[in-house]
């Protein structure tokens, strides 16, 4: 049944926005909750994957991003209810790029279990920034996997995961664009592929990293950690949109960068975000207390179902980096601990995964874009 909206209400709605609105339908991916965890199986000393998978079910987690996967590890997720994303190691790229037969063989050896519901395969990590030499394998690998899926009758999203380093400048969101040294040559062909296959764009966003740079000179820890006290916000001088936390600003910057390149409809998924509980001595913000604040507030912010200032209809989806201490974030000292669970699977913080499990993304989105005149008025607040 079509939803009838009284005309006057529609008018009030339209008039209440000072900027032009464009509505676009985007294909709905199967949404199962908005919070996931990044689980690297190859960290030494972890419990067996089957125990981890069971504990994740008990904790009410609804999405898992497996990195550094191996077949027995994936098999541990047989029959679990998660939306599973598999991160394919950079070292596998040349093989997948070789030809479709190799891709079929790799899928058979790694992905196909009797009962593993893989939703997304993310091929390669940070290829647009750190591992640019491997980029040449990316699209051939994606196309071979796509052809393999067709042959094998499989249906999964195919994408890659990037670091926020390729977005510049880091703030304000409306100014954001992809680094021009890769935008047209590398990012655009990838976005063509993602559009063609209705796949999401995966990006890792660390307010911790941005906060520790001089990208936002006036940024406070509060802005980075979802502190909701009054006075903690930044205004985008061009759009007038008000940002109460850096996570939302970074999501919108990614959307703005995609928009500038001509791909406003690609769904952005945050494939890694978190806060270290331990770091080097010169970095007191890497503490258990602040890590707990970030993680707990991130989950409640996502569970609220609210969209971002520029995309009020789209609840962001994010994977917490990471389940256990161990694997490092590119550009961060290896010793830092990002895990939310200890190695004996005790929660370091109380993270309410279950409340995030029933929130889904929405099919229609409204992109609020800049209105030049209005922007001039609010620039004073920046
Ligand atoms: C991923 O690749 C790196 C080297 O590129 C390797 O050291 C590591 O063992 C690989 N992980 C897995 C699970 O294959
Ligand atoms: C596919 O690539 C592999 C590795 O380069 C090669 O050994 C094999 O002969 C190729 N198969 C076909 C059908 O081209
Ligand atoms: C863009 O990428 C190039 C190559 O990685 C790098 O040298 C440059 O500093 C980047 N530009 C910005 C603005 O981040």
UniProtKB/TrEMBL annotation:
Residues 1-23 form the signal peptide. Keywords: Glycosidase, Hydrolase, Signal. GO terms for molecular function: hydrolase activity, hydrolyzing O-glycosyl compounds. Pfam families: Glyco_hydro_17. GO terms for biological process: carbohydrate metabolic process. It comes from the Eukaryota. InterPro entries: GH (IPR017853), Glyco_hydro_17 (IPR000490), Glyco_hydro_17_plant (IPR044965). PANTHER family: GLUCAN ENDO-1,3-BETA-GLUCOSIDASE BG1-RELATED-RELATED (PTHR32227). Belongs to the glycosyl hydrolase 17 family. This is Glucan endo-1,3-beta-D-glucosidase.
């Amino acid at each position: 049944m079509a939803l009838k909206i009284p005309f006057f209400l529609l008018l009030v709605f339209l008039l209440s926005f000072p900027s032009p609105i464009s509505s676009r339908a985007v294909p709905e991916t199967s949404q199962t909750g908005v919070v996931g965890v990044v689980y690297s199986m190859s960290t030494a000393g972890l419990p067996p994957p089957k125990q981890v998978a069971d504990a994740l079910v008990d904790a009410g987690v609804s999405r898992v991003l497996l990195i550094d996967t191996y077949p027995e590890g994936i098999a541990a997720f047989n029959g679990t209810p998660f939306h599973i994303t598999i991160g394919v190691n950079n070292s596998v790229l040349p093989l997948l790029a070789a030809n479709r037969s190799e891709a079929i063989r790799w899928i058979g050896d790694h992905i196909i279990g009797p009962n593993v519901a893989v939703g997304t395969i993310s091929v390669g990590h940070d290829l647009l920034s750190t591992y640019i030499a491997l980029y040449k394998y990316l699209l051939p690998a994606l196309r071979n996997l796509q052809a393999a899926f067709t042959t094998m009758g499989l249906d999964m999203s195919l994408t890659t995961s990037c670091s926020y380093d390729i977005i510049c400048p880091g703030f304000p969101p409306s100014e954001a664009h992809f680094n021009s040294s890769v935008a047209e040559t590398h990012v655009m062909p990838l976005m063509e592929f993602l559009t063609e296959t209705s796949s999401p764009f995966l990006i890792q966003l660390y307010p911790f990293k941005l906060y520790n740079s001089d990208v936002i000179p006036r940024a406070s820890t509060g802005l980075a950690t979802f502190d909701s006290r009054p006075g903690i916000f930044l205004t985008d001088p061009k759009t007038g949109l008000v940002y109460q936390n850096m996570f939302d600003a970074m999501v919108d910057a990614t959307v703005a960068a995609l928009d500038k390149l001509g791909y406003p409809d690609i769904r952005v998924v945050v494939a890694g975000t978190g806060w270290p509980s331990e770091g080097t001595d010169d970095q007191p913000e890497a503490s258990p207390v602040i890590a707990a604040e970030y993680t707990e507030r991130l989950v409640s912010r996502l569970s609220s179902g609210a969209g971002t200032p520029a995309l009020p209809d789209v609840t962001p989806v994010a994977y917490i980096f990471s389940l256990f201490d161990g694997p490092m974030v590119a550009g961060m000292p290896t010793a830092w601990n990002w895990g939310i669970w200890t190695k004996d699977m005790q929660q370091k913080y109380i993270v309410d995964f279950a409340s995030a499990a029933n929130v889904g993304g929405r099919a229609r989105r409204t992109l609020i874009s800049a209105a030049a005149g209005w922007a001039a008025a609010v620039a004073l607040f920046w």
